[in-house]
Amino acid sequence: MRKTVIAGNWKMNLSEKEAISLAQSIKEKIPSVAKDRIPMVFPSPLHLASVARILEGTGVVVGAQNCYPSGLAAFTGETSPEQLREIGVKVVMIGHSERRQFLGESSSFCNEKIHYLLKNGYTALYCVGETLAERESGKTFEVIASQVKEGLKGIESNSFSNLILAYEPVWAIGTGKVATPAQAQEVHAFIRKEVAGLFVGASGVAESLSILYGGSVKPDNVTALLKEKDIDGGLVGGASQKIDSYQGLF
Ligand code: PGA
């Protein structure tokens, strides 16, 4: 059974006061409306511990936006998954397009992170997506295939229960230009097919994988997107950062 996930990506937004107040409102309002959708939030690293404390035991999963694939060690400015575990955080987003685009994160570095996380009992939320230029030049499927293959290289089929994928077309992020449900479905089905190809002989793996769609998801388009066969939830930026619109996604 695939899990349906509504993941809120707070990015580098919200002051400490705003993050705490949003977490408190989520604690009050989301558990009763979440039902068959798993709520997740990804606050800025500075607010993770406070938000995790507020949401502990509520069923709202708190995740980190990034990590470095190592135990405690000399990597200035980075965060180890071991430090995340200490504050109750066991889900980490990997390869968001803003990290790929502005911080030079490659699929092969994402692959190192995913290996580390899955080997050590964490869940990885791995993001892929094409830019507008790539889509317009007909390269969407080529780009997605390479991000999927490189990012998931060498991952054992038995660790797939701790993996979630997200398809986020870069041209739809923060732009208000949402992919149509049909456009998104086409790429989701392709991703599932690519994943199936990576695991010959483990046929259930790709079918049981949750693939979230991200890019201008809002309360008024979430239902149509989630109706598609291969769309198993949303990775939501802007609309997840206010309680009313986040609640509207459930
Ligand atoms: P958006 O962001 O919902 O604001 O488009 C999505 C994301 O970047 O995860």
TrEMBL record:
Keywords, ordered alphabetically: Cytoplasm, Gluconeogenesis, Glycolysis, Isomerase
Pathway(s) served: Carbohydrate degradation; glycolysis; D-glyceraldehyde 3-phosphate from glycerone phosphate: step 1/1; Carbohydrate biosynthesis; gluconeogenesis
Listed name of the protein: Triosephosphate isomerase
Residues the record marks as active site: 96 (electrophile), 168 (proton acceptor)
EC primary class: isomerase
Protein source organism: Leptospira tipperaryensis
HAMAP family in the cross-refs: TIM_B (MF_00147_B)
Gene Ontology cellular-component annotations: cytosol
